[in-house]
């Protein structure tokens, strides 16, 4: 598996294994490697001085939360993205190893992904392709409106599963979709696959060459296992291949595709993009050009004076991308990312978390290296934060309260 | 996100601007404003026993949490005639503001810094969101706490805060936090805070001190900011004139209808330039047309404008939306 293999811990809280198997499968302390994840949680729980188990339960929850350490260099990123999302709708997606079924879990995650994608990349575009019965079908064309994609995913017909998937067909269709994307934007494919096979009409190696030639980056989250051809396609196009362990892990892996990837220098062309900043229309209800419905609220395209009902979008009449200035501001945090905080022990200048004002849970412990767990220091302003604030600052706020 | 219920408790974070210089410019004195704010806070706490309160104070140098205060502070003496919580809140907030004002006065005498009418608003809002996040993470799943922020602002916008302020506004929007703005200073509207209210769905109120004397602030707060998420759905909030979300270009500070945006750093220009003055990217000589299927429009490459990096970096931070 590509990610998340647990380090063997040094305590002995594991279920005892009586049978003796082949030695190379054994983990660090005698159990099988795959059993190391299961601890006897009831042994860990002990009452504290006041007879409460709340603190230990909080501690266990803290261990489950992990900080994602991000790349914080100010590198050039493709802010304007074109992503094709490929969803496997073969019979293999009916398996119940992810709850309730693989396809249901996938659709839930993909729905969340689409919301997050457009939240973080407001001027980017997305298209959804489904593959089943050896064919690929485009559910939505490249569009900047999340409602289009969410509507298509809700459609009942798109939840029927049949036959084998065809990765080649899906990639060819994705390439065809992305051909229209301008060169200053990125071209990406994100696949969610549950099948260990692909049923292709031709040589998928040729498709791989074509993908490389047209600079498409393919990333994949697989729900079952590593498959050589899938991994090779991802690796050679500059993407990443992950295998999801469970629902939470799958969400993390899929959401790694939300922030824009760094630009490969070979094709970094920059353009000036013509964009319209429309004025809000009000007063009398008028029909919009996008849904042909009467409404009070709308935005007037500055070029052709037609009315659209939401931003950001492309004008349906003249095709001008319409945005408002806050949409552009929303992408700035990708360009100036917040630095990762360092976990520190010992004394600190702050008597409490600098963000939320929570008093440190345990007194700083100098005897043990790395003691005083749960303090994270910003390298720039030297203020300390609790774990909760650290995650919040890096995932939602994108501002260090001490640095601004 | 689920719908707010009548029984759901609220969390109110009050951010008080204690920039002494800015208050001297305002028609309302800080004493008067503080009195009215405390009456408002007491009214808020009296509405529902579960209601939670955080008070932050910010000037141009620091941002402090006044309530809930540190544990090691001196206990406040009891007075049986006043409801305990009111007394604690009132005393902690007042002493905190006093301490900050005297600190600021002390540093001003020895320091040679020229006094500016700007406040660390993005830091205060960031801290407010951290507090809200902490309370929401700690509250049980059964009871949803609805949070909002009230900013009592006297100072002017600081242009270099633009990006940080926008980040906090979007974070608040994602968390479903309303930001109400009560602008006291009489001179100009705060463009940034207006956007904060507009994007998060809060109210932007400008206290009218010309009519009704100093007490109009309390009235305004009581009528518009006391309502929780549930009540606001049935109330008609005071309308502000719609905010123009058009952008100003970085090169000439003109308001643009149709602008040219650098694909790398998203700077806005009103005309074609060969090099982006913000990020120094050289553009290929063509304009990406809106309809990407169409062939790229060729542009005559005889532009000779030289980039002005220093001016443009300043412009990057002053991207205002009139």
UniProtKB/TrEMBL annotation, chain A:
Domain of life, per lineage: Eukaryota
Pfam families referenced in this protein's UniProt entry, alphabetically: C1_4 (PF07975), Ssl1 (PF04056)
Residue ranges of the region described as Disordered: 1-29
A Gene Ontology cellular-component term: transcription factor TFIIH holo complex
Subcellular location: Nucleus
Membership in a protein family: Belongs to the GTF2H2 family.
Source organism of this protein record: Coemansia aciculifera
Domain VWFA: from-to ranges: 82-258
Protein name in UniProt: General transcription and DNA repair factor IIH
GO terms, biological process: DNA-templated transcription; nucleotide-excision repair; regulation of transcription by RNA polymerase II
KW DNA damage (keyword) present: yes
Automatic annotation (TrEMBL), chain B:
Source domain of life: Eukaryota
Protein name: RNA polymerase II transcription factor B subunit 4
């Amino acid at each position: 598996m590509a990610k998340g293999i647990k380090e063997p811990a040094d305590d002995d809280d594991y279920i005892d294994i009586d049978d003796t198997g082949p030695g190379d499968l054994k983990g660090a302390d005698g159990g099988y490697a795959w059993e190391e994840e299961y601890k006897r949680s009831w042994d860990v729980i002990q009452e504290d001085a006041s007879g409460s188990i709340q603190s230990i339960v909080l501690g266990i929850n803290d261990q489950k939360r992990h900080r994602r350490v991000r790349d914080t260099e100010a590198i050039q990123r493709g802010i304007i993205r074109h992503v094709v999302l490929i969803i496997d709708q073969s019979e293999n997606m009916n398996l119940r190893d992810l709850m309730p079924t693989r396809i249901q879990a996938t659709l839930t995650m993909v729905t969340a992904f689409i919301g997050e994608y457009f939240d973080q990349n407001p001027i980017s575009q997305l298209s959804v392709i489904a593959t089943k019965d050896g064919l690929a079908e485009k559910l939505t064309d490249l569009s900047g409106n999340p409602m289009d994609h969410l509507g298509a995913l809700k459609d009942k017909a798109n939840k029927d599963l049949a036959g084998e998937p065809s990765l080649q067909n899906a990639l060819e269709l994705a390439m065809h979709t992305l051909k229209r994307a301008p060169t200053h934007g990125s071209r990406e494919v994100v696949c969610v696959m549950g099948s260990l096979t692909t049923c292709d009409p031709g040589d998928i190696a040729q498709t791989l060459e074509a993908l490389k030639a047209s600079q498409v980056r393919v990333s994949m989250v697989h729900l079952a296992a590593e498959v050589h051809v899938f991994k090779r396609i991802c690796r050679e196009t500059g993407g990443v291949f992950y295998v999801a362990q469970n629902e939470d892990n799958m969400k993390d892996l899929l959401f790694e595709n939300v922030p824009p990837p760094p630009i490969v220098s070979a094709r970094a062309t920059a353009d000036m993009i013509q964009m319209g900043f429309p004025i809000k229309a009000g007063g009398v209800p008028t029909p919009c050009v996008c849904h042909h419905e009467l409404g009070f609220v709308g935005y007037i395209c500055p070029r052709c004076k037609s009315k659209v009902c939401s931003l950001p979008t492309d004008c349906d009449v003249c095709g001008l991308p319409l945005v408002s200035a806050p949409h552009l501001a929303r992408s700035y945090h990708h360009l100036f990312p917040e630095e990762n905080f360092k976990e520190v022990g010992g004394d600190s200048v702050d008597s409490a978390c600098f963000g939320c004002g929570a008093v440190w849970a345990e007194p700083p412990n100098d005897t043990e290296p790395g003691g005083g767990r749960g303090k994270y220091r910003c390298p720039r302003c030297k203020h300390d934060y609790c774990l909760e604030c650290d995650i919040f600052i890096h995932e939602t706020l994108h501002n260090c309260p001490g640095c601004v | 996100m689920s719908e707010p219920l009548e029984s759901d408790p609220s969390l109110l974070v009050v951010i008080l601007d204690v920039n002494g210089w800015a208050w001297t410019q305002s028609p309302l004195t800080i004493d008067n404003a503080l009195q009215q704010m405390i009456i408002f806070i007491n009214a808020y706490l009296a509405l529902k026993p579960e209601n939670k309160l955080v008070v932050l104070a910010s000037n141009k140098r620091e941002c402090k949490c006044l309530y809930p205060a540190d544990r090691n502070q001196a206990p406040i003496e009891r007075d049986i005639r006043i409801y305990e919580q009111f007394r604690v809140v009132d005393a902690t907030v007042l002493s905190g503001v006093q301490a900050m004002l005297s600190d600021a006065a002390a540093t001003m005498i020895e320091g040679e810094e020229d006094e500016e009418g700007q406040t660390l608003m993005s830091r205060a809002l960031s801290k407010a969101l951290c507090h809200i996040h902490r309370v929401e993470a700690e509250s049980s799943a059964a009871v949803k706490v609805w949070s909002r922020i009230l900013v009592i602002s006297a100072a002017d916008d600081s242009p270099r805060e633009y990006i940080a302020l926008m980040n906090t506004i979007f974070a608040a929007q994602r968390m479903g936090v309303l930001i109400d703005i009560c602008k006291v200073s009489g001179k100009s509207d705060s463009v940034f805070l207006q956007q904060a209210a507009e994007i998060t769905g809060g109210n932007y109120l400008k206290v009218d001190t010309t009519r009704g004397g100093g007490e109009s602030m309390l009235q305004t707060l009581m009528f518009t900011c006391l309502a929780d998420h549930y009540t606001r759905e049935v109330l008609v909030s005071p309308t502000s004139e719609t905010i123009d979300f058009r952008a100003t270009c970085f090169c000439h500070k003109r308001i643009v209808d149709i602008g040219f945006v650098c694909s790398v750093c998203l700077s806005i220009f009103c005309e074609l330039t060969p090099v982006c003055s913000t990020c120094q990217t050289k553009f290929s000589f063509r304009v990406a047309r809106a309809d990407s299927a169409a062939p790229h429009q060729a542009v005559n490459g005889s532009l000779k404008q030289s980039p002005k990096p220093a001016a443009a970096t300043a412009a990057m931070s002053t991207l205002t939306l009139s």
